[in-house]
Amino acid sequence: MAKGLFMSTGLAVGTGIMTLSALGGIITMAIIFQVQVGHNPPTTRVPITTTPVIPTGPPPDLRLPRNVIPQRYHIFLRPLFYHTLTNETIQSFIFMGNSTVTFECLNKTRSIFLHSKDLTVKKLELTRLDNGDILTVNQHVNESTVSETDFLEVKLEDDAVLEPNRSYSLFADFEGEMFNDLTGFYTSTYEVENSNETRYLGATQMAATDARKVFPCFDEPDLKANFSLTLTHREGSSALANWPKKRTSGSEIEIDGEKWVVTEFQSTKKMSTYLMAFVVSELANTGGIDYKVWARPEAITDGHAKYADTVANKILNFYESELGLKYPVSKLDHIALPDLAPAGMENWGLITYRESALLFAEGVSSTFDKEYIATLIAHQLAHQWFGNLVTMKWWNDLWLSEGFATYMSYQGLKHLEPSWNTEDLFVVNEVQRAFQVDALTAAYPLSPSEEEIQSLSEINGLFDTITYSKGAAVLRMLSHYMSTGSFKEGIKKYLKALEYESANQYDLWTYLQEADTNIEEIMSTWTTQAGYPVLTVNTGTGDISQERFLLNSTGNKAVVWHVPINLLKNDGSEVHDLLLDKAIGGPRPELKRDKWIVVNINCTGYYRVNYDRGNWEGLMAQQKADHHAIPMINRAQLIDDAFNLARGKYIDVTLALNTTKYLKNETEYIPWNAAMKNLKYFILMFDRSEVYGPMQTYLKDQITNLYRHFEHDTMSNTVPKNHLDQYAQLEAVTVACKVGLKECIDTATNMFNQWKENPYNTTTQIHPNLRYNVYCYAIADGGQAEWEFAWEKYLNSTIAAEKDKLRYGLSCTRHIWLLNRYLQYTLDPTKIRKIDTVSTINYIASNVAGQALAWDFVRGNWKHFSEEHGGEIKFLGDLIDGVTERFSTEYELQQLKQFQYDSDLTGDSIGSASRALERAIERTQINIQWVKDNKDTVLDWFRSETK
Q: Quaternary structure per UniProt (predicted)?
């Protein structure tokens, strides 16, 4: 699953661009079918209480008992958007179906527990397969569903029992409703271009635990089975599923006067319930034989799927070669959906995406959109092996799926586009991103215990930066420690030995084990402990020590990791293969400096480094004299480590600020990105105080050279050829306009006004790479007319990537009444699609004028959000993270605590936002103390540097 907002995986590209732009102002298994109807879909119901899941045994345990094990499902579904009754068309949004699950009995039992949620089960029939006997079971099935677990208990009557080592089948006849909540079987719409036609789609989101909302099933990841699916759908539509079609009937079936088609699919290989997917639609495709991209017919006709089609085939071939295993399905469909909760979902053989994550419109989509699409595709394709072929036994090891997919996506991108410098981007997008979340006491281990992950909210809470980015960073560290070749061979063995089965982290260590190294002992310190270490190196004595890095100095720091160490000396020599496995080590002669050393070359290790004052001064002197002597990634590392060490009170804040002095001579993106991500924290903390004035002046002085380095390209409405230079240009424009550099603001407003005056003239079109910033700063500098023009453009655009840029730009206005209006629009899915709700609100919150408005809006509408989006994996958590990012006052802390208390008191669901709320409270407490301790010092430093 992609982060994208599970981007994660986001993936990191999209969120990286938003990090830049935010300085101014981130699963679906799909069943989709599509008909043309003139009615509205039903409003979303108030969701049933979220569903827990874990230990083993019948209630009150939350995991399914292992008395029976599923082997095969036969599923028949007929989706309806409406049916005709007494010559009146009634909007119906239901699906009807039946399923038969074959299972083996392992232990004698009189009850079968499986999952069912929001289904009306009308009939059950249990059969013993060896003799055909039908066993009597309870038929009051809907009364047997346990709401806390979603267990459907099927009880045998007449003293009958299931006997071990025998196989049985359970038939269920059921109905379900489709809502527009992006979970289970849900509804969605899109407008047909150049017409007033609205087309409805039905889609399912099975992951993480919503297959049970589509058919009764054993809905846990290790309970794999084969799936045989038959879909009955209206004439004129076509059907897709995980595996290829077996046969499709003609239109000889007539129901209620309508012609229907029956499509039967080949049986899948063993897979988890959350990976099942099927689609019924009138969407078009790119015309390949076995590998296709599907989208709205207009998007296919306009060529928006061509890039994805090319990329997907190249990366798939690369993975087959790299992993030593052929892709196990004889076809692969990529499909763009108008509404999808995550950015993408890795359903085996049928990968679903948001339109913005799959469709590239030449001349409208940016270079960064292209990279985002390639990253998402690479991530989802990696899942075909990591997660699909070999699946985690339980959700506590989700990183075996998402961490691997994130790590492998960068390998795929490196093969696809070597000039993109993906190794460098990995550090800023994944490593430094994970550091921020993992530095809180509220952080949890990569592999928490199974007992810690029980409820649905706890499962959904795992789809976050720790799982995706830290998981990938730890794998990258291990690859460098073992050597890439040894790591690759171990992974091949892991996949081959466990194909179609389930694994936990210890299975992985078994296949990565080397003769002279205890991989499990080393890596368990990184997966079973929360956080990461900071190494303190005394380059005068060669002593070294480690402790847990925490932004909150009151947490327990007495934790030890097995830390692989490498370093660079000022004479260019390198030292490798050191391992620190205790709290204090040394003295080590390798760690002594001549002028300076840098530990953690290219940030291959997942840790921060602090030095004695002499080494810090030597490094900054080198930066001033010739910064190129220090590798680019390590220049970024020094800045990022210094600022975070200062936040954690390991060093003085002025030392961190001093690492930015050389930036006026820096033209590379990676160091600038590290600096601005950290200075963004200063902006968030101080843009409502007197510190902001001199800080703005300092940043204006620092950014001017970088802005002018790319000024010709920017003024000419063009971009550099080099990929990282395009990022650097974006950084320059973002920061320059943010701090009020006049030529930047003038350029942005002139470009926007020329476009506004001649919106259909190709010569006035703004380059796609520059649109986020031009839209934002022109709207910020303008008034109602500029906002209304952009809003009209947003409503009329059919290209998701362009709509995203306009949505962001609209959040930049300084007019409170427009921001309030925009917030209200997020409650109306005809104005802001549900999948864009959280990012739109967070964009507004990133605008200092909109911060308080967004927080009040979220609190005031929390019940609505929890009902409409509570089942979505990351929605509520991302919302809390975004709107509280700037919190740094006692008043805001008390509001957070009151919000938590009120929610507990009223029973309003915090749900999957519980971890995010805990993080927000801790982060706010840290911010309050940091501002109190550093405000005066920071103000004095900026004043002294801008005299």
A: Homodimer. Interacts with SLC6A19.
- How many residues does this entry show for the chain? 947
Q: Is residue 13 part of a domain?
A: yes
Does 872 have pLDDT greater than 70? no
In this structure, is residue 308 part of a structural domain? Answer: no
The two tokens of residue 503 are: 């694994």
Measured CA to CA, the distance from residue 326 to residue 321 in angstroms comes to 8
Residue with tokens 């370093």: 567
The candidate with the shortest Cα–Cα distance to 804, out of 6, 1, 17, 8, is: 17
Amino acid at 367: T
Check whether residue 15 and residue 97 sit in a common domain.
no
* Pairing status of strand 134-135 against strand 119-128: antiparallel
Same domain? For 295 and 232 the reply is yes
For the beta carbon of residue 107, count every other beta carbon within 10 angstroms. Answer: 11
DSSP-derived secondary structure for 701-768: HHHHHHHHHTHHHHHTT---SSHHHHHHHHHHHHHHHHTT-HHHHHHHHHHHHHHHHSTT-GGGPPPG
Q: Give bridge partners of residue 198 from the DSSP assignment.
A: 191
Residues 232, 218 share a domain: yes
Across the range 799-821, mean pLDDT stands at 97
In a domain, 668, yes or no: no
Contact between 704 and 398 under an 8 Å Cβ cutoff? The reply is: no
pLDDT above 70 (res 33): no
- Give the CA-trace dihedral at 796, 799, 805, 811, to 10 degrees: 40
Specify whether the backbone of 410 is left (phi greater than 0), alpha (psi in -120 to 50) or beta.
alpha
Q: Same domain, yes or no, for 425 and 521?
A: yes
Domain count within the chain:
4
Residues 398 and 249 in one domain: no
* Known binding positions: 379, 383, 402
Q: Collapsing DSSP states into helix, strand and coil, what is residue 934? A: helix
What are the angstrom distances between the C-alpha of 839 and each of 253, 355, 811, 916? 45, 16, 10, 16
Kindly report the CATH number assigned to the domain that includes residue 11.
1.10.390.10
pTM here is 0.90
Question: Could you tell me if 81 and 126 lie in one domain?
Answer: yes
Give 470-502 as a DSSP string. IHHHHHHHHHHHH-HHHHHHHHHHHHHHTTTSE
Q: How confident is the model at residue 257 (pLDDT cuts 50, 70, 90)?
A: confident
Residues 175 and 211 occupy one common structural domain = yes
CA distance 640 to 661: 14
Residue that is written with structure tokens 């087309």 in the block: 199
Phi then psi for residue 456, to 5 deg, are -60, -40
For residues 845 and 851, the answer to whether their CB atoms sit within 8 Å is: yes
Dist. CA 399–CA 392, nearest whole Å: 8
Helix (H, G, I), strand (E, B) or coil at 863: helix
pLDDT at position 31 over 70: no
Q: Name the one residue in this structure whose structure tokens are 């208390």.
A: 901
Question: DSSP letter at 225?
Answer: B
* Alpha carbon distance 945, 271 (integer Å): 61
Within a domain: 778:
no
Binding residue numbers for Zn(2+): 379, 383, 402
Q: Residue 383 in contact with residue 346, Cβ under 8 Å? A: yes
- Please identify, among 492, 527, 562, the residue that sits at the C-terminal boundary of a domain: 527
- CA nearest to 561, candidates 529, 587, 519, 538: 529
Phi, psi (rounded to 5 degrees) for 100: -130, 120
Which residue among 566, 597, 620 closes a domain? 620
CATH of the domain at 127: 2.60.40.1730
CA distance linking residue 492 with residue 497, whole number of Å: 9
How sure is the predictor about 82, in pLDDT bands with cuts at 50, 70 and 90?
A: low
Range of the domain at 545: 533-605+607-620
The C-alpha atoms of residue 657 and residue 648 are separated, in whole angstroms, by 14
Judge if 79 and 169 occupy the same domain: yes
